[in-house]
Records
---
Amino acid sequence: CQFFKDQMKSVLPFTDIVFGNESEAAAYAETQSLGTTDVKEIAKSIAMLPKENGSRCRVVVITQGADPVIVVHEGNVTEYPVTALKPEEIVDTNGAGDAFVGGFLAQYV
């Protein structure tokens, strides 16, 4: 969002689910001058943005690596703990966020 601020702003009204990580949330907050670094508050701010389809609320999901996942749905913030892995169990973190989104959406639909 720091490089494509206008493009992102133009598509957000059409999103029902928004995924991001803590770095992306922080960049969004900075470019939008939200005045906070609190991931929960940033997620709530994104969830409350205007939507074209008012028949359902927006869901915002922010991952934070080993820290809890933040989910905002219908104005409520929920934290989901992340199961810790031993360092020797981690082979590669590339694609971890994509796999998370895929798993989330598979259960959501």
---
Amino acid sequence: MKTFQRLIYIGLVAMVVVMIWSVKIITQPSSCHPSLNPYKKLECSQDSKPATYDGTPPSASDVKLLSKLFPAHTAAFSNSAYEVWKYPQLWADRRNVYTAAAVESGQLTAVLTAMSTAKIIQISDISSGRQNKLMLVLDGGQIAIFKPKRGHDRHFAEIVAFHLDKVLQLYRTPLTVGRKLDFSSAELQSVINDDIQNDIRYIDHANEWCYYRSCCGQSNCKVVMPSCTEDGLMEGALVLVLPFQLGELTRNPMVDIRRPFIRMRLLMPLFGADMTYLLDLIDTSIFDYLIGNIDRHHFETFDEPGAAIILLDNGKGLASTATDDGYLLEMVRNLCVIRANLWKSLSRADILDELKLSLKFDPLHPVLAEEFYGALRRRRQTVVNTVVRCARQHGWSNVLKYDL
């Protein structure tokens, strides 16, 4: 009998340790990681403070830094082209990449149009990660990341994720637009940086251009599949680099959503009155469930208290219309809480019709095959059913959470 009681005691102690460890993962983001911002040095500073942005053109030090990163063509920036790039700097704060006002005023449309049409000043390589990526400097000095079409790298998923973020009114996905690059044009050939001249090659027998990514000595990088033009044009998603005044991004490990969160509901009071961080994780898990993104192994926030999770790197989503990754909803099922604003958007029956209409304005329209809308409708209904089930069990006042 004593042995049995001892085993029960050990089991209870182990359970408490696991529960506390799980809460620690959720409540304590890692302190420091290299920035994903190409203007910043690859180092971390705990003392850096976001600067306010007054809408003035780049300073002499900014231009000097740009000239080091992209030595050719820096002097070609035009003041008129720079005007539209003011907007993203003015919208962004620790909780939003852009705002509802930006959408309603037409400023967001102006920036997306500029992204898809602005003259390209410089093209350079980004060797980090396993995805093919090019860094473009657009007229006016704005930097954007071009993610070309390539096999399992679904560039269209990046575009859809941005528009879904917009209609859900999360406003946490970097601005993304479809664009095609003509590598056969003399204008584009003249702005390709020297470091990738040999990586962009003309394939005689196919009469197309291909980009073979340089790995810069990375052990985990293999040149398996290049990104190639089709009928002379390379299609891809162009992602605007996040505003620099927000400071550096901190990379945090993603919570294992397959953990027994049902036990953690008992520990939710430990989060205190402000459940912002937990609700951000739930927002993210719902967003990933909708687009079928099972590749989010970490997430990024700005290094500032209360900063939102930024929904970066969505290119592994929308792989299948037949499979729903239900485990991504475990946090919702077991914790039974959701941000009230997200629920308001999801509960609208026409939300995916709005998504479809929004995507019609992208230059790569049609971005998404019709069968994917059916999958999105099915997944949205699953989320709605899950939340309604929670409300029946715990009451709406306990399920819907409002930001302080």
---
Amino acid sequence: KKLQQYEKEKFEEMVNQVKESGANLVICQWGFDDEANHLLLHKQLPAVRWVGGPEIELIAIATGGRIVPRFSELSPEKLGKAGIVRELSFGTTKDKMLVIEECHNSRT
């Protein structure tokens, strides 16, 4: 029970750090559990998880953002900027693709 409470407090702390940085979307190379995802959505921070290494690097270049290994290193100066972020579904299997438009460096 104490471990669950500690874990929840840590998740809330991390989500608050993201929100306080000014971010309005989280893109993560690794996954995080449903509890963390719920907290992010509760703070109106949609999240995309399991984004591949090369893709996340291209997103950082295109948006002018920096990849940060820890929430504690997040700051407004490291955030990327984009005008529109949307998800497209296509094909008979309803594959999904994230489209990021109106970026700082749109040639990426």
